[in-house]
Amino acid sequence: MPLDPSFIGRTYPPTPPYEVGREKIREFAVAIGDANPAYTDPEAAKALGYPDVIAPPTFPFLITYQASAQVVEDPELGLDFSRVVHGDQKFAYTRPVRAGDRLAVTVTIDSIKSMAGNDVLSVRGEVHDQSGEHVVTALMMLVARGADEAGE
Amino acid sequence: MAISFDEVAVGTELPAQSFPVTRATLVRYAGASGDFNPIHWNEKFALEVGLPDVIAHGMFTMAEAVRVVTDWVGDPGAVVEYGVRFTKPVPVPNDGVGAVIEVTGKVAALLDDRRVRVDLVATSGGQKVLGMSRAVVQLS
């Protein structure tokens, strides 16, 4: 059954703040094999003009994806997550995420489209820091494959 | 280390890179990212849902591809926009070798405020794995 288009434009309450720690950034940088010192060495980050170590460009997805669980698991929307694939992902940064940030995400359903029997859901996460300043916007497109394509 | 806007032109190539990915890489990425979807570590599950093998996290491939940009520009915070489309999965066989993600990039457009758009091409096993892979980068 197609997703209910009346959910387009729905905004969920901001998530409780996620506190970004130096060691979490280090763990993530190691996991992607990226030795850029701006991720692990506060002095290297300061030399680039940042108050503390910064996170790699895709790090905010950890936080925005967690926040999008509100949509994915919204019983009223009724998305079958076992049929969902990640179609595309975009980030628009005001500044890089950095250690010490306390980040809240406000999630909005930008669009719901039905294409070739699939539901295409665009979810926007606006990430703000503890001062209320914008840090990054994450745009995620999810594709829920039609039931007839999903096997039995 | 910083790249000046005046040094680049449309067509300027960024140094290409190859990123190996093994099952161990995926387990580590699952832990660091919190994405424990079994298609990224459980072969039986992956085959049952119709995949050719365990596949890499799309977000892992996205993270690797932009390293061509961040290693070129030096300051990762110079990336002001970054987006990809996940077009093909990266199968990662359990053969001790795994897969390799090959990434090239070139300057595709000169923008206002000394910014450029870099278009990236990511392939694995000869297949293009990302589409519309683009970053907007602030140069000095």
CATH architecture of chain B: Roll
CATH class category label of chain A: Alpha Beta
Order of helices and strands of chain B: EHHHHEEEEE
Rg of chain A: 17 Å
- C-alpha Rg of chain B (nearest Å): 16 Å
Low-pLDDT windows of residues of chain A:
none
Give the name of the CATH architecture of chain A.
Answer: Roll
Q: N-to-C SSE series of chain A? A: EHHHEEEE
Which pair of chains has the greatest number of interface residues, and how are they split between the two chains? A-B, 33 and 34 residues
Q: Count the domains of chain A.
A: 1
Tell how many strands the DSSP assignment of chain A holds: 5
Indicate the low-confidence ranges of chain B by residue numbers. Answer: none
C-alpha end-to-end distance of chain A: 16 Å
Could you outline the blueprint of secondary structure elements for this entry?
The complex is a heterodimer of chains A (152) and B (140).
Chain A: E1 18-19, H1 22-31, H2 42-47, H3 60-72, E2 84-93, E3 102-115, E4 118-128, E5 134-144
Antiparallel strand pairs in A: 1-3, 2-5, 3-4, 4-5
Chain B: E1 13-21, H1 23-33, H2 43-48, H3 58-65, H4 67-73, E2 79-86, E3 99-110, E4 115-124, E5 127-128, E6 130-138
Antiparallel strand pairs in B: 1-3, 2-6, 3-4, 4-5, 4-6
Q: Explain this structure to me?
A:
The complex is a heterodimer of chains A (152) and B (140). Chain A has 152 residues and is an alpha+beta fold. Chain A has three helices and five strands, in the order E-H-H-H-E-E-E-E. Chain A has helices at residues 22-31, 42-47, 60-72; strands at residues 18-19, 84-93, 102-115, 118-128, 134-144. Chain A has a five-stranded antiparallel β-sheet, with helices on one face. The longest helix of chain A has 13 residues, at 60-72. The mean pLDDT of chain A is 93. Chain B has one domain (5-21, 56-138): Thiol Ester Dehydrase, Chain A (Roll). By secondary structure, chain B is α+β, with helices and mostly antiparallel strands. The longest helix of chain B has 11 residues, at 23-33.
